[in-house]
TrEMBL record:
It comes from Planococcus chinensis. Residues 220-329 form the Glucose-methanol-choline oxidoreductase N-terminal domain. It holds the Pfam family GMC_oxred_C. The keyword Ribonucleoprotein does not apply. Residues 428-552 form the Glucose-methanol-choline oxidoreductase C-terminal domain. Keywords: FAD, Flavoprotein, Oxidoreductase. InterPro entries: FAD/NAD-bd_sf (IPR036188), GMC_OxRdtase_N (IPR000172), GMC_OxRtase_C (IPR007867). Belongs to the GMC oxidoreductase family. This is GMC family oxidoreductase. The keyword Oxidoreductase applies.
Length: 570
């Protein structure tokens, strides 16, 4: 038996950064909001004195239970897609806060070039810089139009940083808090890159350099540099996350309610509007319908796309014909870089998730691509995130992979190894996409999401170029041995790479090539909004969270305006 609940103004599917922002802004505007979170409640107190690398970093305490729902994966359409049975290439968060709880805190604004990449690339290099197999397109919004929303997210999160990057877009205000500590390791990177003629700056960080109270009154503490950020919740309340900022802000209004253990399986639609969502209680398996005037999909990009597919909202992308937009433009990232082995010991075991220095000299279109067979680039960073002993086991080339020599080299190099890493942009390709799997289903009987993805020639060329630049920096830093990253071939679902998946529900100015408009309002249902990194038309050279946060504030404005006036927002 299905229980139909009382209708609300807004229902969100997922309570992480995007769900929290939508809830806070809409609840402050007087709208009644319900957040459906399929995981459980948690808070800072749950992470007190739990520096347990095995529990969190190896056994994935905070991540999605793949025995209930997973994805299937293949490199191309000729292969059989098989389920992902363990977390590998990316880590899907679950429970209150989602991936916003276990993230590192590196908080970037995508470059102005990113938002108008097709226009700017063609203006400078011509229409044939990339082949027609790459589905390059503008986002339907410019950096300048999105800048106020970037500013709002950074002030909500209290981001620590410095406005010293000559390549990024113009800012309306400085960062809310000063940059983090410039450690001796980062100073070494700064000296080397400066001597090479580059422009280093401190990484924008949600691990705050000092205590901060945001405009909504939420208090965020100062980072203790314990080195337990990525894959961990912060025991100090110093890594800005949804459950210490936007979620309490929403709850304090009295207009917001969170329902935990609520797994949404369908967005319900009648005519050209949605009417609510259908969900299961994950503990009792009771079935509910939550009616709403507005539905906002605020879960991870894979689930947002899956919900639209199973609900038959939008046209599924078909790589054979090029028709359809849903599932199109899936993009990931590449990770070029280089390691260096040194004689002296360094405090590599200390740090924070977003403690680092970066150069953007080889990101976006900040360098000439005229004679190169790729576009875009990568941010190049030296991060000091805290090397933990299980996952950090650097050894020089030609070291045996086991035995006494392996153990000796591991101990010797644990605090004598540094890495310069790049986050390489990923361009959408016609053969990289998401669809529903025709064989496998989740625990609720819903088809699994199927991912078809492989690295492209663009990826391989960019990876090789940036790896060479990283090796040059490491050489300048004085490493006795420099090891560049191996060339990439076929993408594999293991090992871990980044949780920076994008695309599938892309935004744009035209329903012919996008799923949502620039308020993240669905073209086919005016009271349905879809928000997340799935809106990215391609992936850039940064972590996505800062840009997702800005889009969430843009979306919240759209939801509020729609609730007052109705109709299309563009």
């Amino acid at each position: 038996m299905v229980t139909t609940l009382d209708k609300v103004d807004v229902v969100t599917v997922g309570v992480g950064w995007t769900g929290g922002i939508i809830a806070a802004e809409c609840a402050k505007a007087g709208l009644k909001v319900v957040g459906l979170e399929r995981g459980r409640e948690r808070s800072t107190s749950d992470f007190s004195v739990v520096h347990d690398e095995y529990r969190y970093a190896i056994r994935y305490e905070l991540m999605q239970d793949l025995s209930k729902e997973t994805i299937t994966f293949r490199n191309n359409r000729q292969q059989r897609a098989l389920p992902m049975r363990q977390m590998g290439s990316f880590l899907l968060g679950e429970n209150l806060g989602g991936a916003g709880t276990h993230w590192n805190g590196q908080t970037w604004r995508f470059l102005p070039y990113d938002f108008q990449i097709k226009t700017m690339t063609e203006q400078k290099y011509g229409a044939n810089k990339l082949s027609a197999d790459y589905l390059l397109q503008d986002w339907g919004i410019t950096y300048d139009e999105l800048e106020p929303y970037f500013d709002k997210f950074e002030k909500t999160a209290g981001i620590s940083g410095e406005d010293k990057n000559p390549f990024w877009g113009k800012r309306s205000a400085d960062y809310p808090t000063p940059p983090m500590k410039k450690t001796p390791i980062l100073q070494r990177f700064e000296t080397a890159t400066s001597d090479l003629g580059y422009s280093p700056f401190m990484m924008p960080s949600a691990n705050l350099s000092e205590p901060y109270t945001n405009p909504d009154g939420a208090a965020i503490n100062a980072c203790q540099y314990c080195g337990f950020c990525e894959r961990f919740g912060c025991e100090y309340g110093a890594k800005t996350s949804p459950e210490i900022t936007v979620v309490p802000t929403a709850l304090e209004t009295g207009n917001y309610e969170i329902k935990f253990n609520a797994n949404v399986v369908e967005v319900m639609k009648e005519g050209d509007k949605v009417t609510g969502v259908r969900y299961f209680d994950t503990v009792t398996f009771e079935e509910f319908i939550q009616p709403a005037e507005v539905v906002v999909l605020t879960s991870y990009i894979l689930n947002n796309a899956k919900l639209l597919m199973v609900s038959e909202i939008g046209e599924q992308y078909d790589p054979a014909t090029g028709r359809g937009t849903l599932g199109k433009n899936y993009a990931y990232q590449i990770l070029p870089g280089a390691s260096g082995f040194f004689d002296e010991k360094m405090n590599t075991f200390m740090g924070a998730g977003a403690l680092g220095m970066t150069i953007d000299d080889f990101n976006g279109d900040n360098f000439d691509h005229g004679d190169l067979d790729f576009i875009h680039g990568a941010s190049l960073s030296m991060t000091q995130t805290g090397n933990r002993p299980i996952l950090s086991n650097p050894i020089p080339p030609d070291t045996p992979s086991w035995g006494a020599d392996f153990k000796k080299a591991s101990i010797e190099n644990y605090t004598r190894t540094l890495g310069v890493g790049g986050q390489g942009a990923s361009m959408p390709h016609k053969e990289n996409y998401m669809a529903l799997d025709s064989t496998y289903k989740d625990i609720y009987g819903v088809p699994l999401l199927q991912l078809t993805y492989n690295f492209t020639e663009q990826d391989k060329a960019l990876h090789a170029y940036i790896t060479e630049k990283a090796a040059g920096i490491m050489q300048e830093m004085g490493a006795k041995t420099v090891v560049g990253g191996s060339p990439i071939s076929d993408y594999d679902i293991v090992p871990y790479q980044t949780t920076h998946n994008t695309g599938g529900t892309i935004m744009g100015a035209d329903p012919a090539n996008s799923v949502v408009n620039n308020y993240l309002q669905h073209w086919d249902a005016e009271n349905l909004f879809v928000i997340g990194a799935g809106n990215f038309a391609h992936n850039g050279g940064y972590n996505p969270t800062g840009t997702v946060g800005a889009l969430a504030y843009r979306c919240a404005e759209g939801v509020i305006n729609y609730s007052k006036n109705g109709g299309s927002l563009v």
